[in-house]
């Protein structure tokens, strides 16, 4: 397996002149965030940029806002494509960054850095187009709705990986890479791990049906609030008593609703939560135990539970060979001291996982925390802003993965 960029190419020399306009573009995207499946302006910017580069492109995927771009290899033969992916959607959060380019869309902001991801992939397309030698065709995937909408799944369903004639562009994709700005790591650092990197994400809701009564006479009713409290406590026994101590599972109740007055036991109460797991076996066990505990504890309190489940994203699983390729490319380009072998998976989720169901995939993290900073706003916080100083390295890694051979 070769990890060298083609002879005579100097990626950093090609990237540097592009950065000022890419930073301007990133900040424009930041100022105009759009929620999942509403990324019409963002999609239009992507199409404009791909057309300016001279890339074949295809808009209108995944419900209308997904975009593909394709760049053929420079040789005559066109083998399987290498795909690079960016997500485009924002979050329903009121921004508190105080930047001059802060969101102009009240209640919506780029709090997860997807503006940076999109700008970096456009940058990679610009740089790769300039190279005299590209050993691989490259497919650029700009997808909507990563934040809970499974946009990646819809891109796959629409044929983004299948090539021309089957919904996509160019030759079918043979492998795919993505990256995410990561506040835990300093600028200049990249990292990943083979196997599971991010968790599967499932959700559940439950309505607890009781019997209404006056608060002074609780024996005349069936209190769904007491049942709900017992359920929340009991759900934590899944982690402490049903799953091995070296396995990983999270069961979090993040939403509770009940009651209309201080002196009324209501007829119903509700809760909602998430289950995060790293293996199919634990995923199945945790979901079964959530159902059993909610139903059983409600019944023990004289109530009845109505449970709704939603299957979320699969585990984001890095192919062993592609993770090894990433480490080889990154070590050579940056030096091993700047490449982190991530020890443990994180229990966050990513719909990049859907691509890995079809082709070998590797997802990596890109440091965005300023060197020496004691802390940095976390993802999904109102103060978070993608660090433009990370853009050059992010583009370089995308390009190097696209150029890797073997």
**Share in helix:** 25-40%
SS-based structural class? alpha/beta
Low-confidence stretches: 1-9
Main β-sheet: number of strands, strand sense, barrel status? Answer: 8 strands, mixed
Our count of helices gives 10
What is the averaged pLDDT score? 96
User: What sequence of helices (H) and strands (E) makes up the elements?
Assistant: HHHEEEHEHEEEEEHHEEEHEEHEEH
Instruction: Please identify the top-level CATH class of the largest domain.
Output: Alpha Beta
CATH topology of the largest domain: Aminopeptidase
Number of strands: 16
CATH superfamily of the largest domain: Zn peptidases
Domain count, please report it: 2
Summarize the structure in words:
The chain has helices at residues 11-15, 19-31, 40-53, 114-130, 151-157, 224-235, 237-242, 280-300, 320-334, 391-403, and strands at residues 56-61, 66-71, 81-87, 138-143, 173-186, 190-192, 195-198, 200-209, 213-214, 249-258, 264-265, 268-277, 304-310, 316-318, 339-341, 361-369. The protein has 406 residues and is an alpha/beta fold. The chain has two domains: 11-197 and 315-403, Zn peptidases (Aminopeptidase, 3-Layer(aba) Sandwich), CATH 3.40.630; 200-310, Alpha-Beta Plaits (2-Layer Sandwich). The protein has an eight-stranded mixed β-sheet, with helices on both faces. A four-stranded antiparallel β-sheet has the order 10-12-8-13.
Helix and strand layout, with pairings?
Blueprint: H1 11-15, H2 19-31, H3 40-53, E1 56-61, E2 66-71, E3 81-87, H4 114-130, E4 138-143, H5 151-157, E5 173-186, E6 190-192, E7 195-198, E8 200-209, E9 213-214, H6 224-235, H7 237-242, E10 249-258, E11 264-265, E12 268-277, H8 280-300, E13 304-310, E14 316-318, H9 320-334, E15 339-341, E16 361-369, H10 391-403
